[in-house]
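Notes from hallway chat w/ T.B., transcribed later so I don't forget. T.B. wanted the structure written out for a chain they're using in a teaching module, and asked if we could keep both sequence and structure tokens in one place. Agreed to drop them here.
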Amino acid sequence: MKITIEKINKNFGRTAALRDVSFQVEDGEFFFILGPSGCGKTTLLRAVAGFVKTDSGRILFDNRLVNDLPPYRRNTGMVFQNYALWPHLTVAQNVAFGLTVPGRNLPPKERGERVTAALAMVHLENYAGRRPGQLSGGQQQRVALARALVIKPDCLLLDEPLSNLDAKLRREMRTELKRIVRETGLTALYVTHDQKEALSMADRCAVLNLGRVEQIGSPQELYRKPASLFTADFIGATNLVPGRVTETGGGNLTVETAAGTWTGPNPAGRFQAGDRVTLSIRPEAINFNAPPAGSVNRKEARLVESVYLGESIEYLLEPAAGIRLRACRLNPENSETAAGSRLDFWVDPAEVVVLAGVAA
């Protein structure tokens, strides 16, 4: 099912929760709504589900207007952050609940077959007789997912479903959720503030900030080609270095900063000499190996500190007074570099993202 959001607005008193939000989710797409707390992402998801009435705009399911339809007539499956399981019911009874309500009340035999199939899909077929209190957090999350799937929804809505799980379980459930969405072919709308969830699972994401859409794109586009300072800073770790364009030409530009001169791309001639800009440089883009002959963006910095993380080392570098850059070296052979040491590094111009404006 295709979901279309057209110029949605929602205010709570004087607070604007959603401001002219528009995007389209394609049939079978795993689409993420990503943003910090208070950006409006859960309000938007609840508006799609029918739990929140918007002030203006349209919500369409396959070109069918659903603004005035109550939740039970939208045929969406909702997975809540807190699982919302009934502790006095068994796993099977929790999953079957949606098949017992008016308008969807199935005969016992068909209901049992549906429940068995849904539990098998989340690998819980042997837990049907247990109660939620006898399950781990990951198992409870699977029950909530099975309950959403058993009604055969047209789309799946997920509101930060993994936030209550520990890091290991979150990684496991990411894989499971992605598998289930692919196997069912469902359109899925997933709300999260966790960038790793979005980057590892989504087909596309909408980044929200203060109720507005900052950028829509694939995880790779959002990470490697952020369109704004907010997106660059919110999606993953980055170094933001303010400066001024001093020269353009040949598809590139030169930016003078407090950390020296840098070269980066100037797509479509967007920037001109004199423009104030901010450079976004990812920690992993900082190279410590020997640079190619004639390369630019070669720098030297004082090592402020290093943190050994096993598979990598994080460096805090100071190329100039008051300017600090975070760098990441994978699979380090030597982790004994002392604070105060001088390190040479370089950055490929293609890895320098030039953004309008100056970071606060």
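Follow-up for T.B.: The longest strand covers residues 15-25. Might be a good example for the class.
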